[in-house]
Amino acid sequence: MPFLSIRDLHKSYVDPTGQHQTVIDIPSFGLESGEQVALAGRSGCGKTTLLNLIAGISTPDRGSIQFDGKELVGLSTGRRDRFRAQSIGYVFQSFYLLDGHSALENVLLGMQFGPGRDAVFATHLLTALGLSDRLHHRPSQLSIGQRQRVAVARALANRPRLVLADEPTGSLDPTSAAEAMGLLRGLCEEHAAALLVVSHDRETLDGFESQLDLAEINLAGSQRARSAAESPR
């Protein structure tokens, strides 16, 4: 069985007209331990929803998400939160850094929900990401690229076995994007963490040997695409 195994995963939302719209309908998807995969897809196709389901931030209508043989669907909110803190790192598209705290403090705060604060390791991560001279800067004092690096360090702070990254280069110029992805992938490899990146940026996707379009595994996306193509104009 793959390290991350998804089976018959469904998620829908109620639109403003009161109709249920299926966003995720994935019969099967898997990720091996240490594997690095880029998942492509246009905006609004369910990429972020899928990551949130895997991370336990959202719950599916039905289906199975197994992490190294452990079933995540059905866990209480508290148990999902503890599992995410201990086993999953998440690089959010909007960073979600706390501006009242320094770069180092943001990473240390993330550690509190896992094995505990480790200033030496937090400093190591930030230094590896080129921020040794920005440890005590607040997010508002950092460039977008530097804030992205702090977000990467925070995602890796608890030594997760799986890292999820949602459009991690969306706010960066091409040079900074390539550099940030190289650092993220290198650190994941160093710490033996699997990596699942979702993006619509072609240059980011082309850097991965293993690429997959979400429409290939998500029947909901395929159905919406067909409906749009067949609808009268």
3D architecture notes:
This protein has a single domain, classed as Rossmann fold (3-Layer(aba) Sandwich). α5 runs parallel beside α6. 39% of the residues lie in helices and 23% in strands. The radius of gyration is 18 Å and the shape is globular. It is of the alpha/beta class. The strands form two sheets. It has a five-stranded parallel β-sheet with strand order 6-7-8-3-9, sandwiched between helices. β7, α6 and β8 form a beta-alpha-beta unit. The protein starts with a strand and ends with a helix. The C terminus is likely disordered. The protein has nine helices and nine strands.
Structural key phrases:
alpha/beta, five-stranded parallel sheet, 9 helices, globular, disordered C terminus
Largest sheet: 5 strands, parallel
For the largest sheet, list the strands in their spatial order.
6-7-8-3-9
CATH 2nd-level architecture: 3-Layer(aba) Sandwich
> Which spans of ≥5 residues are poorly predicted at pLDDT below 50?
223-233
Structural class: alpha/beta
The first-level CATH class name: Alpha Beta
Gyration radius, to the nearest Å? 18 Å
List the helices and strands and how they pair.
Blueprint: E1 4-14, E2 20-31, E3 36-40, H1 47-55, E4 62-67, E5 70-71, H2 77-87, E6 88-91, H3 103-111, H4 119-128, H5 144-156, E7 162-166, H6 174-190, E8 194-199, H7 202-206, E9 211-213, H8 214-217, H9 219-230
Parallel strand pairs: 3-8, 3-9, 6-7, 7-8
Antiparallel strand pairs: 1-2, 1-4, 4-5
Helix pairs in contact: 3-4, 3-5, 5-6
